[in-house]
Amino acid sequence: MKEIEQARVQLRARFDKLNDDDKRTILRAPELRDLFAMIGSIEPASKAQFGQNINKLKQDVAGWVDDYESAAESRQLKPIDITAPWDINTASDKRPASLPAAYGSQHPLTKEMQIISDIYLRMGFEVHQSREIDNEFNMFTSLNFPQDHPARDDYDTFVTKDGYIAPAHTSTMQHRIISGSRAKLEKGLPIAAIVPDRVFRNEDVDATHEHTFYQIEGIYVDKGANVGHLIATLKTYMSEYYGQELNVKIQPFYFPFTEPSFEFAIERPARLKKDDTEEQKWLELGGCGMIHPNVLKQAGVDPSIYTGFAWGFGIERMVMMKYSIEDIRHFMSGKLNFLRQF
Ligand code: FA5
């Protein structure tokens, strides 16, 4: 039986040296075949034992392969959690049961923007990012603000010494997205995008106004897009986000980049109303309208063939409605007793 033991040592040495992907080839090793071929020449008294020992070796070799593969699998499955506050090799029963609060959590606005983006992704919209610094063209000119028009002053923009602008709304992305995606229209596909991102205004801060806040821009361009589609899109989104149908109010407004333009408000729940006046009844979430033909034209889209709609809502205000948060300043206050509630 010496041959079998010699073969076992050789096979093991070769198995250890094989590359990960080749470990299985050991099952077809010539040593095993040669041993089986020897059975015929073994004297009858030892033949049965010899056969059993070869079978045992063959099973052991298959066992090496199985053990190796299942270990490789669990090596792959073990996630490396760089945020884990314990050594990742600590046995699970020795790890702390829960993370101490000091390790933190996602900011409520981050969480809500994820939820909002997921709703729009399900509705077929792409998600784009905005910029933290932009230029006069994207902030005004591409959006059909006439040169030196007072409407430019409606947005209390922060401007750098060399004339760059901290975007005061996410509409700065309209031109980029429409011109960048117009090839889709030629293929018969709509442009459908959202931009949830940060904007800046030189504004007096109060319970509903911040100088740095978030907006979500929505852009849709296609043949035949109309106001009915705009309202249906916004209502569908609202009822998904709030988990119920809400009363909405749409009234005429003015933006240079949409025509017609509307202001979109939703009815506040009683607990967020200070009194019973008509003004307190509605919370204005943002503006919307049909994209102005000049905006489409500048982005290289023919407004006699395609139409589109756009909207821009304040994210803090939507989240405040959802959780009955009475003051927008809580979000950036860094107060732990506020943040821990989410
Ligand atoms: C705009 O910013 C337009 N760009 C919206 C738009 C987009 C219209 C696309 C048409 C088509 P407005 O300045 O009204 O519009 O701001 C939109 C929303 O942002 C407001 O209704 C409000 O919800 C939020 N918002 C505005 N200023 C502040 C602020 N200082 N703090 C918090 N939220 C604000």
For the biggest sheet, the summary is:
7 strands, mixed
Outline, from the CA principal axes? Answer: elongated
Which hetero ligands occur in this complex? Answer: adenosine-5'-[phenylalaninyl-phosphate]
Would you report the number of β strands? Answer: 9
CATH class of the largest domain: Alpha Beta
| CATH topology (level 3) name of the largest domain | BirA Bifunctional Protein, domain 2
Please tally the helical runs, counting DSSP H or I stretches of 4 or more residues: 12
Question: What structural category do the secondary elements indicate?
Answer: alpha+beta
Number of domains: 2
In CATH, the architecture of the largest domain is 2-Layer Sandwich
How far is the first residue's CA from the last residue's CA?
71 Å
- The chain-level mean pLDDT equals 90
CATH homologous superfamily identity of the largest domain = Bira Bifunctional Protein, Domain 2
The helix content, as a percent range, equals 25-40%
Could you name the ranges where pLDDT drops below 50 across 5 or more consecutive residues?
A: none
The radius of gyration computed from the alpha-carbon positions, rounded to a whole number of angstroms, is 33 Å
Percent strand equals 15-25%
Strand order of the largest sheet: 1-4-5-9-8-7-6
Question: What's the SSE pattern?
Answer: HHHHEHHEEHEEHEEHEHEHH
